[in-house]
């Protein structure tokens, strides 16, 4: 039986007053994934700067072929040609 006067939220089920655990887990996983991707992107940018400093700009690091100028214009930090990048992504999923 309900006491004489209680705030409405005191009468609600516990699930409405506390954060949904599943949502907390999903939010944490999403945040962790975003941080990991940002760290990987920062490492890739640093690697591209090192290659540029050593004369490797525009040369694929896997096949040593030239990277298409259109690709370099769109992604100046790229270190692989389209073919090698495709192969790399298939064997190294995020």
Question: What report would you give on this structure?
Answer:
- With 94 residues, the protein is an all-alpha fold.
- It has one domain (22-91): Four Helix Bundle (Hemerythrin (Met), subunit A).
- The chain is built from 5 helices and no strands.
- It has helices spanning 8-11, 14-17, 21-53, 69-74, 82-91.
- The mean pLDDT is 84.
Rg is 25 Å
Give the N-to-C terminal Cα separation: 54 Å
CATH topology, by name, is Four Helix Bundle (Hemerythrin (Met), subunit A)
Number of helices: 5
Quick one: how many beta strands?
0
Task: Considering the chains and any ligands shown, give keywords for the structure.
about 90 residues, mainly alpha, Four Helix Bundle (Hemerythrin (Met), subunit A), 5 helices, about 60% helix, about 0% strand, elongated
List the helices and strands and how they pair.
Elements (H helix, E strand, L loop, with lengths): L7 H4 L2 H4 L3 H33 L15 H6 L7 H10 L3
Give me a quick take on this structure:
The chain is mainly α.
């Amino acid at each position: 039986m309900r006491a004489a006067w209680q705030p409405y939220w005191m009468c609600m089920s516990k699930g409405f007053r506390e954060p949904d655990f599943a949502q907390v887990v999903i939010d944490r996983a999403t945040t962790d994934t975003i941080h990991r991707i940002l760290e990987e992107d920062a490492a890739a940018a640093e690697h591209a700067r090192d290659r540029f400093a050593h004369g490797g700009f525009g040369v694929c690091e896997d096949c040593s072929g030239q990277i298409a100028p259109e690709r370099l214009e769109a992604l100046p930090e790229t270190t692989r040609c389209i073919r090698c990048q495709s192969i790399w992504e298939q064997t190294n999923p995020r």
